[in-house]
Amino acid sequence: QAKENGRNGFFFYERSLTDSLYSRMTLEQDLRHALEQRQFTMVYQPQFRLGEARPRRVEALMRWHHPRRGNISPLEFIAIAETTGMIIEIGEWAMETACRQFLTWRQQNVRLDKIAINVSAIQINSGFADRVLLLLKELDFDPRSLELEITETAMMSGIIEVNRQINQLRAHGVEFSIDDFGTGYSSLSKIKSMPVSLLKIDQSFVRDINDDINDYEIARAVILMAKSLGLTVVAEGVENQAQESTLQRLGCDWVQGYLYGMPLTGEAFVETYRQS
Ligand code: C2E
Ligand code: MG
Ligand code: MG
Ligand code: MG
Fold it and tell me: EAL domain: which residues (predicted)?
């Protein structure tokens, strides 16, 4: 009997080892073909001015449906795409797809001010701004309708080139936001040197904003500092009314989260938010 368990234990171990090897090696290989095999899609989550019923903006989020493993989290595949450099190509696909969707919505009576797209630091090399501007021109897309989200860590990489590229796009009206703010190691005072106009408080602070005094104090300090510097504050991951009330009291301007709307396909977004 014990021997039987031992064997099962062994097989279990072997199975999980195989799984992790699959992740490390095969997933990277599979990612190389995912683009041409059309396994990526974009979904869209609405953003609201706090208190308003109609969304004004939307964030585009990538999805990878793997033929054998099913949906793989962007937290997993974006990291692989970044270390292999594939993010350049995949990121361009994401931007073009999202911008085209935004233009299609216009014709379907879905009126939004802006679409926000996530960008990795690795994408922001010396040709980045020119490539984005060329795409926008080809699509006849108003740069003022585009927002690019960059994580705090990427923004703080200290690479002068990143700031140069951002400023070139800002001069054309593209707006920039710092994503996942509070998870990096930059001090609050660094905010004023970042070439952005929006700041997204990371959802890890929103989650327990009413239960964890530290999270509450961080959110409070971030909102206070951001607002005194003239930045707009967006809270992500808002899931319940209690979180919303606290954020409202602290002066947060914009909200996004399951309380208001899940990420939806482009078609489902039309069904939900089309104006009569
Ligand atoms: P993010 O940009 O901070 O996006 C917010 C994440 O929170 C999304 O996860 C979204 O689905 C999720 N979320 C939204 N509302 C709620 C809520 O109320 N509760 C909770 N618990 N979660 C909520 P997702 O789609 O899995 O994306 C994860 C991360 O992957 C993104 O974080 C972003 O950093 C990255 N990512 C996604 N799409 C792209 C892309 O096209 N390009 C790049 N470079 N990164 C992307
Ligand atoms: Mg984001
Ligand atoms: Mg975020
Ligand atoms: Mg995040």
Answer: 24-276
In tens, the pLDDT along 188-245 reads: 778 888 899 999 999 999 999 999 999 999 999 999 999 999 999 999 999 999 999 9
Which of 118, 123, 151, 179 to mutate for ligand 1's pocket (most ligand atoms within 8 Å of CB)?
118
Residue 120: HSE in the Cβ half-sphere, 13 Å Cα cutoff: 23
The structure's pTM equals: 0.92
> Does 203 sit in the ligand 1 pocket, CB within 6 Å?
yes
Closest CA to 199 of 219, 177, 214, 215: 177
**Nearest atom (ligand 1) to Cα of 202:** 3
Q: Is 93 close to ligand 1, i.e. is its CB under 6 Å away?
A: no
Q: Whose CA is nearest to atom 43 of ligand 1?
A: 118
The complex's ipTM works out to 0.98
Among 153, 150, 186, residue whose Cα is nearest residue 165: 150
